[in-house]
């Protein structure tokens, strides 16, 4: 994508990454991701964030189409994660006079990640920087996503450069702005990004939303995904709902199955949810990455988990997904459990232990030996219905 003017004097100069398979070395990127960087051009010029190191040349080319990169006066580092800071060594060589601005807690990271100690300055909370015609101010939002993270605000055009906050996975498919894009593609990518990347930090996200509300914002320009100019409140609402772990009034059925017994029950449970007039999604935990299960579970208030007993415990793919969900501390779920066993069982009991640890509301369990009987399946439908009724109310 070409450099794109977001507002007069403010240009997107980011890149699309369609080749990295695993974000942070572990989260699959089936639709890629963008690293958004922005030029703010007043009499002085600031670059807000950069890109992952392999894309530094592309970033420089884009900057050069707006201003001579040598002319950069400031490099604003909202966040030290290398998907945004990786091009700093190249930028320092190209624009040796540009001052690096970051929070105080970013300074040791700049030194240890890139050896940058000279021409580096810590900015204070609320500090302003007059670029001549454009005015930046700096607003730390710790732990969205790292302790040193801040957002930068441009006051004349009312643009918030929110970094990871309000970001999403998904490369930019030819459109930069929310009013040009297919939101049916981006919304699930925002949810998956939130759950996988910032989901650990729900309280910091809510604090950031509250803090940034004090600014008059017309455009939200995050460092991943779309720029929100038609309805910036939309992505803030979505982040708020995800951070409060409200969950849509819908149900996710997550299961694993070796020989179809548990799978038959998953279908019965899902039919029960539908019978109660509630949307349901069925996910085979062995066939998707745990990060997908996490995102599906984060989206919906109801969660019904099924597992056959395997070596006295939970089926590995189901256990792996649930451990990830537990590690991310997803709360506030209404749940049901089911599973088949061959001789002594154990999976459903262990799942119940996990549910208890997480403080989720357990509405019922259906554990059965071998193939489900008609009576077992009827109980499964009832379980689906019960969870559905609870998430509706
Ligand atoms: C490798 C393996 C390990 C198993 N371990 C146990 C076990 O420890 N306890 C038990 O009761 N059943 C065990 N079973 C039996 C299954 O739980 C049982 O066949 C169940 O009906 C499988 O459900 P599914 O068809 O949904 O996979 C095991 C089965 C397999 C293939
Ligand atoms: Fe990050
Ligand atoms: Fe990021």
**CATH overall fold name of the largest domain:** Metallo-beta-lactamase, Chain A
Query: Can you tell me the overall shape?
Result: elongated
CATH architecture of the largest domain: 4-Layer Sandwich
By CATH reckoning, the class of the largest domain would read Alpha Beta
Which structural class best describes the helix and strand composition?
A: alpha/beta
- Whole-number radius of gyration? 24 Å
Count of folded domains: 2
Mean pLDDT: 98
Helix content: 25-40%
Q: What distance lies between the first and last C-alpha atoms, to the nearest angstrom? A: 45 Å
Distinct small molecules bound, one entry per kind:
flavin mononucleotide, fe (ii) ion
* Tally of DSSP β-strands: 23
The description of the largest β-sheet is: 7 strands, mixed
Low-confidence stretches: none
């Amino acid at each position: 994508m070409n450099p794109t003017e977001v507002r007069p004097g403010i240009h997107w100069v980011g890149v699309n990454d369609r080749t990295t398979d695993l974000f942070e070395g572990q989260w699959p990127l089936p639709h890629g991701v963008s690293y958004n960087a922005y030029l703010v051009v007043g009499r002085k010029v600031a670059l807000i964030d950069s890109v992952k190191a392999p894309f530094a040349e592309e970033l420089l080319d884009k900057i050069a189409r707006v201003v001579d990169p040598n002319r950069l006066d400031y490099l604003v580092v909202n966040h030290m994660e290398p998907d945004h800071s990786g091009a700093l060594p190249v930028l320092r060589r190209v624009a040796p006079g540009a001052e690096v601005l970051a929070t105080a807690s970013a300074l040791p990271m700049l030194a240890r990640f890139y050896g940058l100690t000279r021409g580096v300055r810590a900015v204070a909370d609320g500090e302003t920087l007059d670029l001549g015609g454009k005015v930046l101010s700096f607003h730390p939002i710790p732990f969205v996503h790292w302790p040193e993270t801040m957002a930068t605000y441009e006051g004349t055009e009312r643009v918030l450069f929110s970094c990871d906050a309000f970001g999403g996975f998904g490369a930019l498919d030819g459109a930069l702005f929310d009013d040009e894009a297919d939101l049916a593609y981006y919304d699930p990518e925002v949810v998956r990004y939130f759950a996988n990347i910032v989901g650990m930090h729900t309280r910091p996200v809510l604090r950031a939303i509250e803090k940034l509300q004090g600014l008059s914002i017309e455009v939200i320009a995050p460092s991943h995904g779309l720029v929100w100019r038609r309805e910036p409140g939309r992505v803030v609402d979505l982040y708020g709902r995800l951070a409060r772990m409200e969950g849509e009034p819908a149900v996710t059925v997550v299961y694993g199955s070796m020989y179809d017994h548990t799978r038959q029950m998953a279908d019965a449970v899902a039919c029960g949810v539908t019978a109660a007039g509630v949307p349901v999604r069925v996910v085979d935990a062995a066939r998707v990455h745990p990060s997908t299960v996490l995102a599906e579970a984060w989206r919906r208030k109801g969660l019904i988990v099924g597992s056959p007993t395997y070596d006295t415990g939970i089926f590995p793919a189901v256990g792996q997904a649930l451990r990830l969900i537990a590690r991310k501390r997803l709360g506030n779920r209404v749940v049901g459990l089911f599973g088949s066993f061959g001789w002594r069982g154990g999976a459903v009991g262990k799942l119940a232990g996990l549910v208890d640890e997480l403080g989720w509301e357990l509405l019922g369990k259906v554990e059965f030996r071998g193939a489900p009987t008609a009576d077992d399946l009827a109980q499964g439908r009832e379980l689906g219905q019960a969870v559905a009724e609870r998430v509706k109310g």
